[in-house]
Amino acid sequence: MSSYIPNTAEERELMLREAGYSSFDELYADIPDDLKLKGELALPSGKSEFEVRKEVSSLASRNKQFGTVLRGAGSYNHYIPSIVKSVTSKEEFVTAYTPYQPEISQGVLQSIFEYQTMICDITGLDVANASVYDGATAAAEAAAMCIDRKRSRILISAAVNPFVLSTVRTYSFGSGNKLEIIPEKDGLTDIEKLKEMIGDDAACVIIQQPNYYGLIEDARAINALAHEAGAKAVMSCYPFALALLETPAEAGADIAVGEGQPLGLPMSFGGPYLGFMAATKDMMRKLPGRIVGETHDADGNRAFVLTLQAREQHIRREKASSNICSNEALCAMTAAVYMSAVGPDGMVEVAEQCVSKAHYFAEKLKESGLELKYKGEFFNEFVTKGGDADAIQAKLADAGILSGLVMGSDEILWCCTELCTRKELDKAASLVKEVLS
Amino acid sequence: MKLIFEESRPGRKLGLLPECDVEKYEIKAPKRALKLHLPEMSETGISRHYTQLAKQTRGVNDGFYPLGSCTMKYNPKINEDMASLPGFTGLHPLQPADTAKGALSLMLGLKESLCEITGMDDMTLQPAAGAHGEFTGLLLIKAYHTDRKDLARTKIIVPDSAHGTNPASAHMAGFEIVNIKSNEEGCIDLDTLRSVCGPDTAGLMLTNPNTVGIFDPNIKEITDIVHAAGGLCYYDGANLNAITGIARPGDMGFDVIHLNLHKTFSTPHGGGGPGAGPVGCKSFLKKFLPWPVVERQDSEAFLSMPEKSIGTVRSFFGNFLVMVKAYTYILSLGKEGIPEASTNAVLNANYMRVKLKDKYKMAFDHTCMHEFVMTLEHEKHSLGITAMDIAKGLIDFGIHPPTMYFPLIVHEALMIEPTETESKETLDDCIDAFLKLYETALENGEKLHGAPYTSPIGRPDEVLAARSLKLKYEFEA
């Protein structure tokens, strides 16, 4: 059995006596006898570190790791520079608590301040928080920021990631706000339908850029429509799209959120990820979660602290802007290290490679006999039609390739990142051709 | 020290990627016109920058961290090793289930272990943190009443000693909050509870042991009163570290529970996250759990969609790598080690409490569970010494301050949670530090107002930070 208790049996007895107790049971005298667990937990006995390593490693080896990943849909396989893991596995960062004591937490606080600056920089917006759980909860929190007494309708595009949609819906079940789905047309948010449904009491319009099908939305037009109706404009963005496409700020969004996983976090079967959130100055006090600000100490040294805490649950309780307490601080640091490693040119380079490879692969798949389902311009994901989707998935899996996500009997949502080589894409396309012929 | 943006120099970069091996595609949609200001760094520069930041950060590895309510226990290194296995980190969450059998099986094993430890029938691993779990659990309660068309149940009862997340989560779940005063022992006053329970009661949220570190001995009466009124009982698992393997919330009458894997199950806190907040429930609430739920069919794990699911509370399955760490920890400790961790957490807390109580007034002079609360209210009036002064003074002894000014029902509170992974000599050193600080308070209080003296910075001006907001670095135009 492994134990992480330093005190020996003798030391424990000594401490017990010095504390004035004659037995360990006495410490639990407040727990009524009939509520105490009779006997042992129905769990295996504790194991040595060696045995645990073997058992958990054998679980890891029962999973199939694909050499080539052509699937995205909310989780993306990007290159992770070695410096990222080296920094974020430093034990000071890994084992620290939320930086409530600024005098001995300047490292974490400064790293969050730098992260906030980078999120503002990539989105173009004024203020960012220290992170929320993931992209889906970031969208749900953004919707909550827009609600007021007169406006409680949340309008969300049907072309957002299904987990984002489902999570915003669940949060709305909690808050009692009305969620309405803007239909899609040709894979894009239907702007004409949005005009009809927006009314004068919508709180916000939420779109995804690029959307779930990989298509680039006319964000500027949708955001303008939201503003004309007095609603806020919320954009959920793929971080690399921010490097290339018109930013949320330029497109007129009030809030930008997104899944930060592509910024240096492994896919990890879905988590931990990172929800980033940025907003205009006007909405600053409605932002949920931790925010770090700059100040100084009595000697004039630059110092960083958690600030605007009057928004938070430990001060405001039920009147807080959110209940969030733990966030994804270490993942936010990961993203900051990643963005420092690739730098401004690298962000653009990764984005361009993703886009170029996706467009190359789409052409190859067309040559193999698949069609593109939508006509609109796509970023690094796209939907094909044709062939037996399950058969394509199986054929590629046999070759160690994770195909795009099967969306229907003959529909697949593909994704390319900078990690897909031309050779791999050619091979995948030729395997698809074999399935079709 | 410098911000990374101040260290940036034009043209510095790492060589990370080969040149693109396909033709470049030019996007036709409107392009970004704003300049990107991300730092331009060498790898040396990044490495040194963050090493400097690490030196100004304090983790459990650096020393004693008796932060009440946060369970800052040591984080075993095997946990991190296991969570770094490529067979876990390299998995796409939407890859076919038959290619992720090990991951699903680990999630199932974790879920079943946690159900056994808490006395619950089923569990979702999806919530990402404690507060996220609270919100999820409250939605289960809401879904239950809604499903029964019992729509008048709009109120959640929360004691005034509760964590701030409790009322905040209840509000997010659309409930009205009924705050009830604690009794003189810091526990629930049964008459007060009876007086607020009724046909509008959706449920009660409770931490037990509570936030003053005391196990409420009336717990069964409490849950009975709520159940008799038609409400459900929610257990905030933040303080579970006191009782694992000793008593189970499920046996106390709780219907829903969340756990903080980053507290009780030693997955680290990461400077504020990621954590994980699984939510357990009794079988009658199973059908409302978020989708997907991992279930057992013979010896295999599979994913299922609960019949009346509240929906997802985030993407995918939850913070999977955190689950790997918690499962590793449970396998290591096993059925013997789990209760042993709790008894030693309780022993360490009582040892410190008894050694300090002659000098420091205990908010409740009573055998505590895993933590205890002291009050500096008297010293504030007689000596002008606050809880903050003592807390900051501890920093100069190399000890992380306890939780300050919480729970709200105790004035000038210091809440101390040593955890089981600290040795007797660490506790003795901390006791000595507390006693020396008390002497300093008596002899030279002025000195304490200026503490800490040995940290990289002194007490920052928090008022200035909030008044003259500077929330990001401003780049030169």
Protein chain pair with the most extensive contact, residues per chain: A-B, 207 and 199 residues
Q: What's the CATH first level of the largest domain in chain A?
A: Alpha Beta
Category by helix and strand content of chain A? alpha/beta
What's the CATH H-level superfamily name of the largest domain in chain A? Type I PLP-dependent aspartate aminotransferase-like (Major domain)
Biggest beta sheet summary of chain A: 7 strands, mixed
What's the total count of β strands of chain A? 17
Give me the CATH architecture of the largest domain in chain B, please. Answer: 3-Layer(aba) Sandwich
The total domain count of chain A is 2
Q: Strand count, sense and closure of the main sheet of chain B?
A: 7 strands, mixed
Strand order of the largest sheet of chain B: 1-7-6-5-4-2-3
In sequence order, what are the helices and strands of chain B, one letter per element? HHHHHEHEHEHEHEEEEEHEEHHEEHHH
The dominant shape of chain B is globular
List the helices and strands and how they pair.
The complex is a heterodimer of chains A (437) and B (477).
Chain A lengths: L8 H10 L5 H4 L21 H13 L6 E2 L12 H7 L2 H5 L10 H18 L3 E2 L6 H12 L6 E5 L4 H14 L2 E5 L1 E2 L2 E2 L1 H7 L4 E8 L9 H10 L3 E6 L1 H6 L10 E5 L15 E5 L12 E5 L5 E5 L6 H4 L12 H40 L2 E2 L8 E5 L3 H10 L2 E2 L2 E4 L2 E5 L6 H15 L1
Parallel strand pairs in A: 1-15, 3-4, 3-7, 7-8, 8-9
Antiparallel strand pairs in A: 2-10, 5-6, 9-10, 11-12, 13-14, 14-17, 16-17
Chain B lengths: L3 H4 L35 H13 L21 H7 L2 H4 L11 H18 L3 E3 L5 H18 L7 E5 L5 H8 L3 E5 L9 H7 L4 E6 L12 H10 L3 E5 L19 E3 L20 E3 L11 E5 L2 E5 L15 H37 L4 E2 L9 E4 L1 H7 L3 H9 L7 E2 L8 E4 L7 H20 L1 H5 L12 H6 L10
Parallel strand pairs in B: 2-3, 2-4, 4-5, 5-6
Antiparallel strand pairs in B: 1-7, 6-7, 8-9, 10-11, 11-13, 12-13
Helix pairs in contact in B: 3-10, 5-10, 6-7, 10-13
